[in-house]
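User: I'm preparing a small set of examples for a lab meeting where we compare how different chains pack in three dimensions. I only have the primary sequence for this one, and I'd like the structure in token form so I can line it up with the others. Please keep the answer compact; I'll paste it straight into my notes.
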Amino acid sequence: MKISPEEVAKVAKLSRLDLSPEKIDQYAAQLDGILGYMDKLGELDTAEVEPMYTPVDHTTVLRDDVVRKDYTRADILKNAPETDGSFFVVPRIV
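Assistant: Understood. Below is the structure token output for the 94-residue chain.
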């Protein structure tokens, strides 16, 4: 697929980008190369290839969720500007 500098200029205008003529030509060449590569990939027969979510096996690096009580209610409320002894008191909004 060939992408013209005029198409790049149109997309740049829609994106509100002010590109110089040199940059427009540079981006047209780069996009043409990318689209040419996509066309080449499109020629491959993938009928027998099973779809996959990702080609990389990901393992979670997060810890398991474990319920624990690290702070008491008094510890948490002692930093509040105003409490009623059990809850935070905040200004009424409505």
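A couple of notes for your slides: The two ends are 59 Å apart (CA to CA). Residues 5-42 form a domain with the Histone, subunit A fold (CATH 1.10.20).

User: Perfect, thanks.
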